[in-house]
Here is the input.
Amino acid sequence: MSKVLRLSEKWFHRALWLVAFVFASFLVGLGGALIGDLPSVEQHQTLDDFMDPAQTPALRQTVKDAQRAEHDAAQALSQAQLKLQVARADNQAARETFNNWLATRHATARAAQDDELVARTAQLDKLRQTEREALTVVESSKQSQLDSRQAQARAQAQLRELEKAAEDGWNKALRAQQLRVFGYRLALTLPLLAVAGWLFAKQRKSTWWPFVWGFIFFALFTFFVELVPYLPSYGGYVRYSVGIVITVLVGRYAILALNRYLERQKQAEALPDVQRREELSYDVALARLAKGVCPGCERPVDLKLESNDFCPHCGIGLHNHCGPCGARKSAFAKFCHACGAAAATRLSA
Ligand SMILES: [Zn+2]
Ligand SMILES: [Zn+2]
Here is the structure.
């Protein structure tokens, strides 16, 4: 994780970051698959589970029966109405025929026709009787339709009452279930976050840092993204609180690190020039020089200036002269660029 200068090393470094991200994505995928395949810990609860088990099925059956009865009654009614219509038309037609016949009879007034009058009257009575019977069937069909409709309404009202009574318990149970599910997920993800925190503090610069960072990304993603769909109404509090705690911890860590760095820097600047130069890693010194800052104090210096042999801020040597050939060269170079002699001045200067 130190500042690297070699080209291949730089690319290896980038590839390792890629490894970290790929590792994180596979961990996220594996976590998702595991969670998806776990048998669901909670059953799906419905309003029915909270309604009176003794009354509900009977009421449901009543509603169903009443619906069927109403349907049957409606069919019977339309049949009866049709029959009534036919009977009425028959009666009407017969009555007209009879009236016509009666008119002719009055005109002729033959006594021989009295028997026929009795027979025709009897036939008319029969037709009227048929019409009355059809009317009775229509009325009774209407009655049974109304009865079943009212029975249905009564049963449904009772059902609604039962539902209303059960609603409270159901909502309470749903909330409790939501809370439990959230609790399970929290119990799974919080330890991951804790492990990630420990890895960040202790292992992020180890040889295996790509895996460490991969795991840290995985834990952060799991907690702040994958947990979201399971958050209950107050889940935001949990999420934001954990976010605040993490920010505070990271911020505190950064502030302490800054202070430690400044302290170290101050101590280093008090040391003799040679010792300071030896404590600096070669790659770090070259990287800082390439950025135009002093390798010792990291403040900007003009390296192209001929007279700049020492840092004007901290006094560390920037340029010196080669022992064998006397050429002016970087004080941090291991070999003289003019004659190739090893820079023994590092120790003797
Ligand atoms: Zn300096
Ligand atoms: Zn030289």
User: Anything to note?
Assistant: Residues 234-270 form one domain. The CA atoms of residues 21 and 214 lie 6 Å apart.
